Please model this.
Amino acid sequence: MEIKVLGPGCSKCQQTEKVVKDAVAEAGVAADVEKVTDMMAIAGYGVFGTPAVVVNGEVKSVGKVPKKEDVKKWLAAVK
Amino acid sequence: MKTCDSQSCCTVIPDSCEKPDIPDEKFRTLRYLTYIVPLLVLWWFVYGELESFSRLVTYSVLHLQHGRRLSGAVEFFIFEAPKVLMLLLLVVFGVGVVRSFFTPEKTRAILAGKRESIGNVLAALLGIVTPFCSCSAVPLFIGFVTTGVPLGVTFSFLISAPMINEIAVVLLYGLFGWKVAAIYISTGLLIAMIAGWIIGKLHMEPYLEDWVLQIKTSGSGMVEEKLTWADRIQYGLDAIKDIVGKVWPYVLVGIAIGAGIHGYVPEGFMASIMGKSAWWSVPLAVVIGVPMYSNAAGIIPVVHALIEKGAALGTVLAFMMSVIGLSFPEAVILRKVLKPRLIAVFFGVVAFGIMIVGYLFNVLM
Model:
């Protein structure tokens, strides 16, 4: 599984990265979590706000820090 | 095997974890309401008693004497600090609930393909209610201009979103009354509409950074979330935690400085510097205000005290708008997508609009 956290590096983006990593660890799934900070790359996903979370190429959340439970649901859904 | 980690709803059928249980949702909403309604009543009661409370504390509990500078400052602080914080709690919650109905994605869909004039008006209005933070200004900007929102309309949104924020409006209402708050909102909207319209008319598209227009966006494959009322209330509570949790120290410091000015600076002191007769005060206020970056929470209580001491309302409005609406960090962020000339035009047009507002109010009031 491939998870990307999109965000230039504001505090919310860092929180999001942490939430996602925690969720991955707790769910015990094999997933690469990658932080995307490059504006051009972020814009390519067509998101309107940061932080955003992309799971296997699908935009899951935009403009907020997702809840850990929600992240786990996304993980369970694609597994 | 498909498993689900959330323990609350998956014990019976694993698939049910995708769909919220309807009776459960109703119960959640009801539970929120049983908390929130009594809290609102309590809020109303406490808010009405604040003024007498501040007098009681200042003169009876602390035994300060009437007419002293210190007592003036203390009374001011004890009255204004809880008042502004309480207003902030209420309005941030309300705005949070309203904002749960709007997302940048929906706003974009409304604005895409709109004609310039009506688009500018809509964009400025949507700027008030769409959740926006300056750190996502760039993706939002790109999302707008690459999916058919005209450049000038995008700017109307970008000007109104930070300038007319709930914190500024609450503080203006709390400290100056509803008239000044209404003036601020309406002139802010006008500036956003007209400045965006002018930028559109100038046809500045070549001054976007080249890579912006080459981006192919999928138009976001984001699935719209279905929100229940309980979710919206939760959204409002999160907004309180997020916004009030962050700004309260600034509010307190700002009010403390305001209280100091209230008690210690002589009447009419500001009249010579920021009064109506000093014509240069408006441009000076804007020149000082633009590079400054402060959230509304810190700046408005100070400004309130300045007006009390003879500063003219127009000058002060101009100062406030330029501090809140335009900032140096914003320019740095936008530099990634805009060439310097477009940034200069953007700041120039908005600063000019703010100056006109400043002069207008100095003449009218």
Observations:
- Chain A touches chain B through 29 residues (CB under 8 Å).
- Chain A has three helices and four strands.
- Chain A has a mean pLDDT of 83.
